[in-house]
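for the writeup, i need someone to sanity check this before i put it in the appendix. the sequnce is what the collaborator sent (i think, or maybe the updated version? ugh). structure was predicted straight from it, no edits. if anything looks off just tell me and ill rerun, i have time this weekend
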Amino acid sequence: MMKKEIKIAIAVVLLIWSFVMGFELGIYKERKANIQAGNEVINTVNPTTQPTAPTTAAPTTVAPTTEAPTTQPTTVLPPVIDPNQNSTAPTVAPSTDAPVNSADPSSLSKAQIVEKMNGYMKELKAEQNVKAHKSENITVEVTDCSVQAAVSLINNLIKNLAGSEELDYTISNGASTAGETMYAIIPPTNKDFLISEAAVLTAEAKTSGTDTVYTVVLVEESTTVTSPVPQYNSTAIGYLDLASLDLPGVTIAEADMKYPGSTVEIVVNADGKVTKLVNKMPMSGYGQAQISFFNGNATFQGALDETWTFTY
């Protein structure tokens, strides 16, 4: 019979190391890895790449198919149509694909919102001179495990190790004094921000004073120990990869994760600069770990909630 102490140890290792350290490794990576990758990015990322600025394109005017009378002057003017006569000129319906008025962001389509967010985030991750402040809160709660008596103990330990964090970064001439770049620290870390129309469940754009707020909610995603990367969350925020953890003596046998609908919000000022980024990533999962001949399992729910603010 498995000793209670061993079961508790398995559960603690599974939850504490996998979930708390997992966020560091799976979402943000270890700080040293960030710094090393960041130094490489300085030489590979083109900091001058600009996003596609919101523009208002003039509608295309379709010329009438009837030829102008030969008595017309050389400079062809639009024909004057007598309102009392029937016109034979074709009626041109407004195109449904025509760009909307950028002064009214609420009329933007999902595809247009996605395009703008990708552009603004690309510029943000390439910023060379900016101050960034991150306020992060991670919550993890065990709802069930192989040792019911250990649930309360594990949750108390997790509460002490997870929780809130405040960090400040000053990027000058492309990097901080520690060698960190915006490309390396802004989620998704060390990779391009990218969302597609297929990734988005809902999209909204609205004005707030002189700012424009863009918000998308991602579609639900699920992962397993053999397929640990959520396609959409991984390029928008990050993800929790239990399978990649190298825990001495511990084998992660199962890691079923569910991301029911992450939210990404950015605030863009009148100068086209991102001044705020808010990521919310709720999740739930089931994990099973093996230590020697003993197995332990647990079910949990949690969330990542972080807010970034930027000054230029």
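The CA atoms of residues 215 and 265 lie 4 Å apart. The chain is about 25% helix and 30% strand.
thx in advance!!
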